[in-house]
Amino acid sequence: MPAERRAQRPPPPRRASAGRAWLVRRARALLGGAAAARHSLVALGFNSTTSIVAGVVLGSIIGIFDRLPGLLIMVPAAIGLRGNISTAFGNRLSTSIHTGQFRLSRRRRSLLMQNLEASFILSAALSVGLAVVAKLGAIAFGVEGSVPVHSLALISITAGLLSSLVVHAVTVVLAWATVRFGWDLDNVIAPVDSTFGDVLTLPSLWLTSHLVGMPGEALLAWLLIAASLAVFAYGLFGPGEIVRDVTRQSWPILLAAVCVQTLAGVILEQRLDALVVLPALLVLQPAFVSSAGALGGILSSRLASRLHLGVVQPTAVPGRGPRRDALVLVGLAVAVYLFDGAAAHGAARLTGLHSPGLLPMTALSLVAGLISVAFVLVIAYYGTILAYRFRLDPDIYGIPAVTSSVDFAGSLVLISLAAGFVLPG
Fold first, then answer.
1. pLDDT in the model for residue 1
2. DSSP class of residue 186?
3. Would you tell me how many other CB atoms lie within 10 Å of the CB of residue 363?
4. pLDDT tens across 109-136, in order?
5. Which of 60, 281, 373, 407 is least enclosed by beta carbons within 10 angstroms?
6. Which one, of 261, 301, 284, 206, lies nearest residue 79 by Cα?
7. Distance between CA 51 and CA 71 in Å, rounded?
């Protein structure tokens, strides 16, 4: 009888495969438990969704790049610069939270306000550098009739300050929320700041581009250039110790990032004619590079905090923990890039922009995305530990190394693979 009852029992429910269970456990461990994992996944989804919106904006305003030759060269670096400054700002706040130094204070010499001041100084000063590098890139790569450097500087500075007001405010609110609700800022700062950098920078560039050609444009541009350089000198030699340290350590890596990210703009500028015919790729491009940067940023942010706390050692060969973390992030990348490709196709169709089709877009996004993520995770690890070994702040150097490399390498991989089967010509 007992044997008959056992035979009549329904089979036990099928358990999840060991591999999937391991991936879930590692994802939760990487992101700080189930709740923190949800925070990161929501942030990554939010980043991809809003970056697609930014891509729609980019595809819709493509005509302005015909009117102002050379402006497209500046776009990836302008987006990247905003994300680099704000994410490094957030990383510094995250480290101060982990080490118990963070306080919400409006005193000018508080840690929060000095970091905020340094971020605005860097935004203004590096916007001038961005304009100069973009103009040099336009000349070097033969962009005919490129706009004058002061016009590029006018667009870069005003757009940078407009978008920075919102992005830095979001960073401060996130820092407050992590303290208030017990979140881990490392898990959300890179995706969220990348999101707002993408979404706000493009409309700001479009809006401020209308200043070009207005009466008094040249005078306004040179006044803003002079003011930006003056506040940069104040940041380098002023009385605030944190402002000085952040400004002095940040500007070389940020300027190097601008130079590398400008090459991504050159790639887009040189394929502008084909992209006009197939603007769905422009819809995909911001989400594509932003997703890789956000995934690499999570690894870099957590490594920086762990290095400060002494939990991880800066070894040449990554330890078991960082290797497992990187593997989990590659797993997350599969879902993220399938979503990016499908969402870019859907957004393009909804807004009347031409797309090669759902399957080509998702295949392109996934293959190019995995190549880019593998590359950027290596940069995230070694960029962060090298900064620490040279006694530099990994919160300052890790994220710019990640985002600048992925903007160039990611755009190169995306356009190169696209040329094989979706781009005309």
1. 46
2. G
3. 16
4. 888 899 999 999 999 999 999 999 999 9
5. 60
6. 261
7. 20
260-284 CB burial, b ≥16 within 10 A, e <16: bbbbbbbbbbbbeebbbebbbbbbb
365 Cβ contact list (under 8 Å, min separation 6): 284, 288, 337, 338, 340, 341, 344
Q: Enter the DSSP assignment of 185.
A: G
Spans of all domains in the chain? 33-419
> Positive or negative, the Cα torsion across 375, 98, 120, 199?
positive
Predicted pLDDT at 313:
84
Report how far apart, in Å, the C-alpha atoms of 286 and of each of 59, 249, 268, 294, 424 are: 11, 28, 12, 12, 21
Distance separating alpha carbons of residues 395 and 399, to the nearest angstrom:
7
Q: Is the C-alpha dihedral spanning 240, 304, 256, 148 positive or negative?
A: negative
Give dist(CA 46, CA 272) in Å, integer: 28
Amino acid making up residue 401: A
Token pair listed for 49: 């969704």
- The pLDDT value given to residue 226: 97
How far is the C-alpha of 185 from the C-alpha of 183, rounded, in Å? 6
Report the candidate in 304, 315, 158 with the shortest Cα–Cα distance to residue 227: 158
52: closest CA among 212, 327, 288? 288
Q: Which of 279, 296, 270 is nearest to 143 (CA)?
A: 270
The tally of CA atoms less than 13 A away on the side-chain side of residue 243 is: 20
